[in-house]
Amino acid sequence: MAELWGQRVVCGQCALWRLTVAGALLLVAGAASALPSYDEVRADFRPSDTVILSAEGEVLQRLRTDATVRRGQWVPLADVSPALRTALVLSEDKRFFEHSGVDWRAASAAAWGNLWNQRTRGASTLTMQLAGLLDGDWRQGPGGRSVVQKIGQTVAAQVLDRRWRKDQILEAYLNLVPFRGEVVGIDALSRTLFGKAAHGLDDREAAVAAALVRAPNAKPALVAQRACGVLRAMQPATKTAIAQPRAAQTDCDALELFTTAAVQRRAFDATEGIAPHWARYALRQQAANATQAPGALATSTAVPAQQALRTTVRAPLQRFAVQSLQQQLRELHGRNVEDGAVLVLDNATGAVLAWVGSSGALSQASEVDGVLALRQPGSTLKPFLYAQAIAERRLTAASLVDDSSAQIATSGGLYIPQNYDRQFKGWVSARTALAASLNVPAVRTLVMVTPDAFHRQLGALGLPLRESGDYFGYSLALGSPEVPLLQLTNAYRTLANGGRASPIAGTLSNGGRASSIAGTLANGGRVSPVADSLANGERFSPTTALPPSASPVFTPALDPRAAFIVGDILSDGNARARTFGTDSVLATRFWTAVKTGTSKDMRDNWAVGWSERYTVGVWVGNASGAAMHDVSGTSGAAPVWAAVMGFLHARQPSRAPRPPPGLVQQAVRFGASGPAEPGRRTPPMPLEAARQEWFVQGTQQALFAINYVADSALSVSAGGKIDSKSTIVRASPQATQEAQAEAARILTPVKGTIIALDPDIPPQAQRLRLKASDDAGARVAWRMDGKALGRGPLLEWLPWPGRHTLELTDAQGRVLDTVRFEVRGAGVAPGATQAAAQRAR
């Protein structure tokens, strides 16, 4: 009875065990049936890198966007080296093409070996390992797999084998298996350890890769030992029994050295391509567009998890721009310049066609994006200033502006602008002043416009100025604020579009619509589309063509008539001849308008301009802010600008724009360059040659001249009486001198002036002009701090720091006027200064 009861208990336990196993099998079968298909696995695959594509579909840049894993692109089985496929099957699953997901023969051998405590190879097949990679429930933990996990993995492998083809299983396994450390998949492994694509692996490299599958983080010696066994299995049995061991031993010794070097190599860079800065910016904007409303500034650095991003940048143009910039910087070797940036925009759509953020290997700060960096624009702001003055009818293109020494009183002292060449041209037209980039006329124009009004105009153009117009003062005309190349180039694109502004666009999303690069304009803007912008006229591709109704949203930012006149001035080679000559690099064989700029001490160098279809901006300098050595706008940035423009219009013409309504063209002539001199046979030359000029309707006139007052207007005689037949006052020389002395006064400097010496300008070039009123005769004299300085109504003085008293005296030494002022800054030795002052007399 006891035996019977015991048998019943045992049978009851067996039944309970069978029920448990049956329930586990049902659960496992349900989980195994939910395994994804091959298409689902491939669709869900996400590399750790995002590929940035050009408008033509060419790879521009590969950029790592997932720092948790190193995973390359999905590699089809046909693109995997045959040697690696063979090595993997021989190493992990010799009967892979024979079994149905589970190798029962290997499983029996493993079970028998475990029974007798013998060390045998595991029975896990490639299909079973893939099931563990696809479903974490079957993945081996630190303590090994449980019974349920082993059963589940077995069932899942058989399900996979029925649903998937063998080549799909092998392909998925190679792309999902971890190899070493963070490296996952054959593409990342081959590029990281061997520096090549997966299709180029040879027998030795394939053996190392197969050995890493079984022991990803093993020491190099153990990996080499296992790789040697794989390599032996791969080699055909062609050697003799005597020679084979020795040859195999020699191969293994060499293989260990090779393996040690390979596992330490990291040849797979985090990014590679020809547009690294553009790739990072496009991804940031793509992420911002997904989380923010259109027009908002991007603040997040996160990037979308995607395999590829189609952009508007053209690969041939991008390569040419990179090459042109690097070639120009190599030619400037020895002038302390190593950085630069190039930006190309499509005028009609705002599409980014090229974005070169740095000079690459030539730079010590290649990660700094020169397109986004804040730099001083120099004279490149002048076109907007003159456009505003013309729109407000303060100037016309033919108006005469005085290019002479100017001393503008400000709350902080005198502002004394200087031209680039330290010379003055006298009276010039506004056309010449802008085209020749004269500084003093620009400052005089800003005095008329006012800094606050000009600051508002720059804001409407999308230039991000953080301080107010009063903060910059009159230096705003010469580009004292800091702006990025991105916004500056787009502001010039506004000129190209007749004063209409719109955001730029750079990435293509679903449907071919371009994602707006937000924050380009101060008032934001809607999403701008991408249209045709290839140099030879073809579309990007049929899949990205936009409907005709799609068009960018423009906002009026400048008077279209003023924008046209400024463009006409900047395209006039004769007008810029005074500074740049008639055969400068700015002169193109097709219609273009361009402006150069150089910031203080040659720290920044610019060339920005447009043609009928494109706007190109170039910056050259140093990311560190160091000054360049004798690099001007025409020798630094302009050659790159001209080369890129030439590439864009190699097969495409560029025509001048049509004038908008409200403009008239009229012939103008200019007055004499000076008063007529007595006894001179030929009259003075005109200020400028006669020409046809554009005017805002209602501002046109035919003659532009200066009213000179002849020296003989006040004639004298010995009589000292009024001639009844004449309206001219006649007086004796003594009476005339006394009258002049009574009216004489000091015009410059004014009382209380504070003069700041510029440490970047040589002392000899910072002379202060002492000027008396027009009533002062030639016999007046100057005294500085009680010491004689010189004679005449006009005198230049070399200042030195300190508080000074300036006196104007007559011939008898009587003080006619006194002015006290102060000079601040570093000066030269007093002795040297006084000696220089003596030479200046």
**Beta-strand percentage range:** 15-25%
How many beta-strand elements?
A: 31
| CATH superfamily grouping of one domain | Biosynthetic peptidoglycan transglycosylase-like
Low-confidence sequence ranges: 1-10, 115-120, 237-244, 246-250, 293-305, 509-550, 709-742, 828-841
Reading off the top of the CATH hierarchy, the class of one domain is best stated as Mainly Alpha
Report Rg: 40 Å
> Which topology of one domain does CATH recognise?
Penicillin binding protein transpeptidase fold
As a percent range, the share of helical residues equals: 25-40%
Which structural category fits the helices and strands?
A: alpha+beta
Looking at the structure, what is the overall shape? elongated
Number of helices: 24
Give the end-to-end Cα distance, rounded to a whole number of Å: 140 Å
Q: Give the rounded overall mean pLDDT.
A: 78
Main sheet characteristics: 6 strands, mixed
The assigned CATH architecture of one domain is Orthogonal Bundle
Q: How do the strands line up in the largest sheet?
A: 6-2-1-7-15-16
